[in-house]
Structure formats: structure tokens, C-alpha cells
Amino acid sequence: MSAEATTPGAHSRRRGLPRIDLRRLGRAALLGPASRDRLPDAMGHVADAHRAHHPDADLAVLRRAYVLAEASHRGQFRKSGEPYITHPLAVTLILAELGAETTTLTASLLHDTVEDTEVTLDQVRAEFGDEVCYLVDGVTKLEKVDYGAAAEPETFRKMLVATGNDVRVMSIKLADRLHNMRTLGVMRPEKQARIAKVTHDVLIPLAERLGVQALKTELEDLVFAILHPEEYAHTRALIADNATAGDALAAISEDVRRVLRDAGIAAEVLVRPRHFVSVHRSELKRGELRGTDFGRLLVLVGEDADCYAVLGELHTCFTPVISEFKDFVAAPKFNLYQSLHTAVAGPDGAVAEVLIRTHRMHKVAEAGVVALGNPYTAADSGTGPDGTDPRTAAEPADGERADPTRPGWLSRLLEWQQAATDPDTFWTTLRADLAQDAEITVFRAEGGMLGLPPGATCVDAAYAQHGEGAHGCLGARVNGRLAPLSTVLRDGDTVQLLLDRDAASGPAPEWLDHAHTPAARIAITGWLAAHPRTEGPPAAAPRAPQPVSSDRRDVAGAVVDLPGATVRLAGCCTPVPPDAVTAFSVRGGVVTVHRRECRAVERMRALDRTPVAVSWHDAPEYRVTLYAESFGRPRLLADLTEAIATAGAAIVAANVEPPSEQRVRHTYTLELPDAAGLPALIRAMRDVPGVYDVSRAQKPATT
User: Fold this and answer.
1) Does the N-terminal peptide bond of residue 273 adopt cis geometry, omega within 30 degrees of 0?
2) Residue 392, CB half-sphere, CA atoms under 13 Å: how many?
């Protein structure tokens, strides 16, 4: 922004001076002969670019903004020696060429006035209104005098918060940085490297997320030249040596035009050269490059359906490379981008990548949120080349904010930055968050979607969906199957998060090993810091395996047709009335009773054991063994035993196995006063938070 502003003989931000008479300065600021009803000549190119996108735009406010900006910056010069007014003019031209509406252009002309001159926000508000004032304030840097080393991270925090309310703030910042990067050559090498590094780590990812590809690609090339001069020089020479490489794509483009013309599809076919970073990445991926690797074909059509018609013709008349096909029309990217990607091979085997999109999609692909116009005023809607409103280019996904300029990733970023009160933590975490250059979409079982970075786990999904409510997450089902919280989610997965109703529940320290997003890590770290662990066993761990005895009598409740025999209910299947049962005589005069579907019955018959007739009698108590599968959490054992007691059952023995992948297995041998109460007991145990399954014992027997 004002990094290159200098005012000879004076500090650019003097305090305590009298209020400026804006009208007097405005009258003195006109450059050259200019009539009252048109802009000064220096603004002519901006006006032309703006009218190309907004033919009916009122340029009067731009004229007033330019007059104020020129007067305010008069006497200031850039490091290059140019008058400083050339900078806001260049920034405004960048945005005008992208199709920004009048309010954004007005603010871009004034974006450095409050920071570098005596103009105040109150004056901007009085002259141009609240919207322009908000945008100018959003991009105004905090002063190092007040914030010291924290000035830069806190400035970006301020800008992001302002962007959350009006995305045009970041549009101006990106255009501002682009012009500064274009003219960075006059800076010292170390300062060039520092600015380029911040641009690479923060502003390029933000441009990508906001869909402003036109700014992102040029910023990438400028950063590439500064941070990797040798690779840049090599790539530049490679492109120069293949100056005729476009001929190969031009030949294929003619074939594509002919095919589409014969099919009756109205389309514009263009050859788009790759930028430097794209060529460099292609060389790293493919090794030696061919002529068609230095560019892509772009096919522009009128309607969405025409995109698929073009795709069908290309795949019919050329040999498609199926692995290169991607459909971002039916499933737009998280940054509003829509297009069909494919690749086809020509008769000579040369492969050409092809992008297929409508004119509306192309405008949004190039300008991103800038192409949305003013999303806060329905009347101020710019139209695309096809006569449609570009703001309808990409509807937000379910679960996202309705305003397309406030996508889910921005909402999540704004949420976690509130918890990162320390500037260093915020700055480090912001760079790490923005380093994730893609996003996956997972579906919630109850409906809606979540956008997460690649590598995100169930822990990240929990905090993305429930915020601090995820502290009580017990586990998850991924695509219908139980999964530990450490499970890495893939694009398209369906996730159901299981929460504990106990408000006192909290995350375990090992969750930090599985947390991938800043929101999850900050929330977990904050909870652990507020709830330090005491000495002794972890609160979330289940109790150690131990038997629980009872003084109740071992009553079988079954009658066998073998006088004098001792009757015992098999522990492998724990039959209770009214189960269909059979019995077998074993050593020591003991008759063991099994459920008929028990696997031990087949084993006995295979050994030619003769079944013994058995029936139930009206015994006062019945014994059964149940397995409970659960996620580990505090007080789980207490809640389970309470549910068992409330159902009227008595615990004869219990065993809790050590946890494995956050899952715990409980074994209970219970006595029921009435076997008819077993289904209700199982339901009561399943209703305990954290328990996901309860089943009757069914294991191979040794008798």
C-alpha cells in the first residue's frame, strides 16, 4: 500500500494539524484542461475500463475521489520517483478491468489517503458515505508506532475481519499488492524477499480462495521471480525457446472449431498460454515439455448445457484422456470456480488440455468475487457478457452462508482467529491454514455439507460443525461405519458425529495429534489449558478390568430330562426364557443348556453328543451375559451400572477391557427377576451416551 510513499522533507503522517479544506484542494487538483462533466485525462483509461463492464455507471463520484486522492498525495513520490498518485490510479485500473463496481473503485482511489495523508475517515464518510469509508478503513494499515512488531499480523487480522463483512476489502488489498509487486524492483533485495514471502504465504492463497485467478496467477509469477530467480530464469528461457509452441495448439484449436461448427454449437475457441509458474509445475510433473504443454484451449459457450454438448463432441471426435476429466460445473469448487476440464489427443498424438465454460463462468473464474459486483445492494448488479448476473454463478453449498462472498472457509477462519489472541499465534496459524490450497467436502448424516482441508479428521469435522460443543464428541460413523476420531476423511465421505450429553466432557490430549484445522487445535488447546489434568489415571479412561461379585444364588431356571444332573446355563450364549434351547451332558454329571443357534450346538452334534431334553420352569431369577461396545469417556461405567440397576437387573460379574482406538468393550453377567425384561434392559443400556451397541454373549464354548 504505502510502502513506497515518500514526502520530501516531512513525515507523511503528521498529527495535530488543522482539518483540510477538501473543496479548496479539490479545485486546485484538476490536471490540464478538463470540462466539469468529465474526468481528468489521467483517469480516462479507468473510466473506459469501468464503462466496458458497467455502461450506465455514474462517474461523478470517481471524479470527486480522484480529485481528493491527487490533492492529498501531492508532493509524495514512490521509491521509483513517480508521483504517488500513480499507485492508487494503477490499483483502480486493475479492479476496473476485472469488472469491479463504482463503490469499490472509489475506495481504491482513496485507499491510502487515511494512511498516508491528513485525510480522516470522518472526512471520507462525509464525502463518500459509509460504504466507501468502511472499505478504506479495512485496507488501512495499523501503525508500527502503536503495535510494534505485531503491526503486520494485526493489520491482516483487521483486514480479514473487515473482509468477513465486505469482501471488497480484500479485493482492494489484492490489487494493491499486485501493483506493489509489479514495481518492487526499486526495493532492497531483502525487502523484496520479505514482501514476496508474505505475498506467497498469505495473499496468493487468499486470491485463490476468493477465485480471483487473474490476480493470483500474476502474483505467483512475480513472487516466483523474486524467491526462485534461477528457476524463473530457466522457465523464462524455456518459454522463449518454444516461442512457436503455440502453433501446435493453434492447429488443434482449428480442428475443434470445425467440429463444433459442424455440430451447430456456437462457441468461441481460444488458445491460452500458461503463465510461468504453471509451465514450471508442468515441467516438474512431466519432465520434457511438448508444444501443447505451453498452453490450454479455452472454449466459451452461452449456456451450461452447451458445455456438456461441447464435451460430447470433443470426446467423440478426438481421443479423450479420461484421467484428465473433471466436472466443476455440476460440482463447483469452493472458490466459485466452474468449468469442465478435459484433455484430448490429436491425430499426431499431441495432447491438449481443454477448459469448457460459459462466458459467465469465465468472468467469475477470472475475477472471482470481484465479478459479483456489490452483493449488498440488489440494484447495483453488473451483468456478464451473456447478459446474466454473475452473482448467480455459483450457489453456496448447504450449510454455508447464503452470501456467496462469505464462503465457509472464511467463516471458519474468522471463528478461530478470535481465539488466537496472541499475534504470533495468529500469524503462524493463518499461514498454516492458508497453506492448504484445496478443500474437501464431507456430507453430514443429518443433512448439509462441511468444507474441510485435505487431511482433516473426524476431530476437525466435529469442531467445524459443533464448535466448542465438539469437546464432548465420543466418536463418529463414517459412511455408516463406526470410526475412531483419528480417521482421515476423504472427499465425499458422510460423517455422523456422536456427542456426549454431559456438558462437563472434554477432549483428550491425544486429540491434538489428530486435529488438522486451526479451529480444532485452538479449541482443544484452550480447553486443556483451562482444565489441567490432575495426578492419577486419566479421567477419560475406563476403569481397570475387575470382577464384580454378588451373593445371589446360581439358579439355572431350566429342567432337564436327566434325574440327579446338575444344570448349568452355557456362558457362551447365556440363554434365558423364552429362548429355544437344547442341552448336552458333559463331564462330572453336568448338563449344559445352550441356545439352539449357538455355535457350540453344531460342535456337540459333530461329536455325536446326544441332546438332552430341556425346558424352562418358573424360576425367580434368570442369568444373562451382555456385551456393551462404547467410546471411552468419564463416568461411562457409572452411567451403565446405573442404567442396569434402574432396569431391575443385578450384576453378578463385570469386566471392562482396556480401550483400543478410543473404543471400550464391557462384559456384564446379570441376573434378571423376569426374562421378559431383557429387551428393555438392552434398550436402556444402548441409550447411555457413548454406548453404540449392546448384544447377547455369543462366543465359541469350551465345554
Assistant:
1) no
2) 12
| Cα–Cα distance for residue pair 545/147, rounded to 1 Å | 57
Cell of 615: 425346558
Phi, psi of 148 (to 5 degrees): 60, -135
Q: How far apart are CA 92 and CA 106, in angstroms?
A: 8
Q: Are strands 440-444 and 581-586 parallel, antiparallel or unpaired?
A: unpaired
Which residues 6+ apart lie within 8 Å of 412 measured at CB?
Answer: 451, 464, 517, 519
Q: What's the pLDDT band for 245 if we cut at 50, 70, 90? A: low
pLDDT tens-place string over residues 226-238:
999 999 999 999 8
Among residues 70, 112, 115, 221, which one is catalytic?
A: 115
Across-strand partners of 660? 663
Report the predicted TM-score, pTM, of the whole model to 2 decimal places: 0.64
Mark whether 639 is an active-site residue: no
Cα 165 from Cα 221, distance rounded (Å): 30
For the beta carbon of residue 595, count every other beta carbon within 10 angstroms: 22
Residues sharing a CB contact under 8 Å with residue 16, sequence separation 6 or more, in sequence order: none
Alpha carbon 138 to its chain centroid, in Å, reads 24
CB 153 within 8 A of CB 163: no
Catalytic residue flag (residue 115): yes
In 43-85, which residue ranges form alpha helices assigned H by DSSP? 44-53, 60-73
Q: Which of 112, 116, 221, 366 is catalytic?
A: 116
How far is C-alpha 63 from the geometric centre of its chain's CA atoms? 41
Cell numbers given for 182: 509489479
% helix / strand / coil in the chain, to the nearest 5? 45, 15, 35
Length of the chain: 703
- Cα–Cα dist 206/210, whole Å: 6
Neighbours of 448 (CB within 10 A): 12
In this model, does residue 480 exceed pLDDT 50? Answer: yes
Cβ neighbours of residue 130 closer than 8 Å, sequence gap 6 or more: none
CA angle 41, 47, 53 (to 5 degrees): 165
Query: How far is it, in rounded angstroms, from Cα 463 to Cα 478?
Result: 16
The C-alpha cell that represents 366 in the structure block? 477470472
In contact, 594 and 579? CB cutoff 8 Å: no
Q: What is the DSSP letter of 20?
A: P
CB 490 within 8 A of CB 460: no
Helices 678-686 and 636-646: crossing angle in degrees, nearest 10, is 150
Nearest one of 619, 628, 615 to 681, comparing CA atoms: 628
Give the span between the Cα atoms of 480 and 58, in whole angstroms. 57
Highest-confidence range of 17-21, 121-125, 345-349, by mean pLDDT?
121-125
Half-sphere exposure of 149 (CA within 13 A, CB side): 4
Higher pLDDT, 552 or 347: 347
